[in-house]
Amino acid sequence: MQVSIPADKITSHSIEVTWLPPHNPNGKIGYYFIYRESTDGLSTAIRFVLPGSTRAKLVGGLKPFTKYTFSVVPYNLRKNISGRSFSQEGLTEAAVPSGPPRNVAINSTTSTSFTLSWDPPLEPNGIIQGYDVMYYECKDQNKKNILDNVEDRVYTIRDLQPWRCYRIHVACQSSGGLGPFSDYVERRTDAGAPPPLGTLAPPDKETIESFSFEVELTQASNEKGVVSYYQVIVRELATDNKDQPVRAPDPDYYKADDLYTYEEARKMKPQLLPYIAAEFNARDLDHYKRFVVGDGERTLKVSVDISSRRRRREIDTTEFYNGPLEENTYYAVFQRAYVSKNVYTSSSWIEPVETAAVTSPTQQPESSTNVGLIVGLVLVLIIIPILLATVYFIRRKRQKSGTPLDDRDDYSNGHPVRMKKLSRKRRSLQKRLMGSTESVDALDELAASRARRHPVPIDDFERHVDRMHMDGDHGFSEEYMLVQPDDEFSFQQFLNPANKYKNRYANIVAYDHTRVLLNPIEGVAGSDYINANFLDGYNRQRAYIAAQGPLMETFDDFWRMMWEQMSSVIVMLTKLEERGRRKCDQYWPERGTRNYGQIQVTLKETLNMSHYTVRKFVMTHKMSPDDERVVKQFHFTAWPDHGVPSHPTPLLSLVRHTFACNRESIGPMLVHCSAGVGRTGTFVTLDVMLQRISQEDSVDVFGFVRQMRYQRNFMVQTEAQYVFIHDALLEAISCGVTEVEAKDLGSRIRELRQVDPETGYTYLENEFCRLAKEEHHPIAFKSASLNCNSTKNRYANILPFESTRVHLKMRPGEMGSDYINANFIDGYCQPRAYVATQAPVPDTFEDFWRLVWEQESAAVVMLTREEEAGKVKCHHYWPSEGSRLYGVILVELLEEASFGDYISRKFKLTHTEDKDSRTVNQFQYTDWPDTGLPDSGVGIVDLIGQVQKWQQQSGNTAILIHCSGGVGRTGVFCGISMMIERLKAEGVIDVFQTVQAMRLQRPAMVQTAEQYEFCYTTLQEYLDSFDLYANFQ
């Protein structure tokens, strides 16, 4: 019997199979006809029963370009016996792909290219011969470009225009033809460098003085990307033997990381180095248009960090000083316009400018002096009568209109005003430029994009944040560009010469229409001015005052503002000094009482906590000494010098505590950092959004930040801060409010033990599961993962975070000698109050005692037995009697005593090289069962009390805690210890936030849901043991 497939009977979706009957059928026969895909052993066989007269079968509904196996089996109808199977393979013809390529994505961009990737279609229906890529500008969809026969699935489209929006489609070309194009992906190319700025005009000769001169800056084009900020770069020039200036290298020779600050350049003399005299936002160009080189102004750094690759050096500053020049010296200046930190264009150097020599008045010729005197007298005699007449007529006119002359000055009285023409010295900053006419299309697109921003429902917020984070936070970058208002606001009081010394930064202004007006002091010009603005809050106008960090010259004004506005809470978000730079002056008394003008301030109490300090002041006014007002200052000390906090938990805690403290306050909450815009705006946004979340079902970060910027400039100063706000709110929404008052703990535990009908788990288990969301990149465990350290880890899956790990002192030439599996854990009041570590293994006995010595720990808490359930949990790392040497540390057992559920061992540690000695107490808790938990938490609470007593005697150094892995029982002990501290101080408990904070410092602290519940029940037992409720109500 022969089975065949005629070539002309094959299509892309069907095959006809023919056959001849067997030579000896041995009776009446029929046929079983069976087919299946040849390439898929799991495919289902399709079976037909055909009569014996059948000689062909047309099979339809097949997949294109797919191999099938067809079998014909004759069988005897009478005996129901099958014969041998006869088979033939057939391949359907190719067809066009059924669908487009999948997962089309733009992976990276430059100013002139996109690199994209895609996956083949699920059903290419033939041999893939290549791909067609179609792209076009979003605004010109008729002009399509098609790249055909692209072979690779990663492709770079080149020769694009900078800062243009493009749409891209991809189609698959198979042997059956070209398939459909994919839906478009849309992206804007990166901004390119603006066109060259040309040459700056030389300064007018009358502006050249001994220590300064004036140059006119120019505006860069926005056609290739919106200019973000400008720099003015100055360089002193050497002179040749003819006293002529030696020209500096072309400005493009100096990369961004080749520029110095004024202070650095002076230190490096006699080298002549270029320095940044000023840096300012592009929209403030009009204010700096007539730029005075050497005027002594300081500008706040508005760009991201500029780091050097060539010299491994970083500009260590957050502000730039336009310091005075030297007399009789040549200088050159150029201007640089930045789109981003590495995309910029420069002007040419101005022609060399020689500053004037200092001239003594006594050197003027006598004839010149006499002539000047005569001319001056003549002018006075002419002008005075004219002035007197003018004043008389103006007063007559004012009296008729009922407006006193003294009420009309050149400065705003605090109400919104339209922009006024300013003199050359104090013009524009107020003109909020977003670009020139060359970028009208881009600005129209930005305006349309702004209009599409709406509040985000809480239920969609996680998906929204995830989308914004895609492609390297691309969504955040686009949205952050839109927050700046287009409106113009005046700030004439900021520009008032009488107020110049009151401003910390020359480009952080106080808008007139929202500025805080102090009660004026009679006869003192500008006495109603302070660099501070009111901000509206959630359903409350003027809920906040955003202020700069006080200067020594403004201490009196600051406390006057606190008194007049009846504020009772200060939030301070900067350290006094960061990276060697003064960020804020200490405006409060270190101890006792201090007078600030009419205000007397007394420090009553200081509470230091791990991330912030709370100071309680009492202030009185000399005019009403019996009126005592309490002010609390929350000084957040965990904001890093650069960037944003690594995790939002500490700042969210501060926001909640300050909100609770300010709830009954009559006056606004005063918030300041250094400039009073970046960190201040971040804090205020979080506070307002958390209030909104508690009352509404949506979040509107974009809308609120824009609203703030109508009231104070630059609020939420960086994109990183804008992203941080979203991440922090996402955590707040995901975690909810988990803080509970002591009196409500029992009912809270009963609620948590109820079963959630949606998940089938208890609410407590759900709460615990929320802790385990975060995944960590391997780089987070960098040192722990090194081969040289692998034997030092008891468990391969319990490793210390790199960011918080304890560093031992490095031994020269010994790789990994600074490593031990241990992390610092912050306590309630004290940073790094605990060291959480694993039980030592034989390879780390010496490192363990080095750790104890170097951290000066006086208490070691051991929460495991050496062997449990037949397994070694901890090796015997101490001498059972006498002494033993561990490296350079001699450990001597002084005494051992058993106290029911724990053993106390006192050791004398001696450093054999330094000959110094210390006493260390090891507390070993022995009542933790091999599996599960202690029957009661009373023993743990008692042990915590004993450890704290020992700490008070020995200096409150870091407590070293370990179990076997250093995470489960160790986390329970640390958590309960710090929660008892907070319970005593505040009367509240927050198990979730406490455990989450620990897990940010060491993974898996409090390892199981049972241990998590044990924390709750132990705290309840603690409360039940004492009549404490009265203290917490």
From TrEMBL:
Keyword annotations of the record: Glycoprotein, Hydrolase, Membrane, Protein phosphatase, Repeat, Signal, Transmembrane, Transmembrane helix
MF (Gene Ontology): protein tyrosine phosphatase activity
Transmembrane intervals: 371-394
Tyrosine specific protein phosphatases domain: residues covered: 649-723, 938-1013
Keyword Cell membrane annotated: no
SUPFAM superfamilies given in the database record: (Phosphotyrosine protein) phosphatases II, Fibronectin type III
Ranges of Basic residues composition bias in the record: 417-430
Entry's localization field: Membrane
Location of the Tyrosine-protein phosphatase domain: 476-732, 764-1022
Region Disordered, residue ranges: 401-436
Residue span(s) of domain Fibronectin type-III: 1-95, 100-192
Cellular component GO terms held in the UniProt record: membrane
Bilayer topology: Single-pass membrane protein
PANTHER family in UniProt: CYTOKINE RECEPTOR
Protein name per its UniProtKB record: Protein-tyrosine-phosphatase
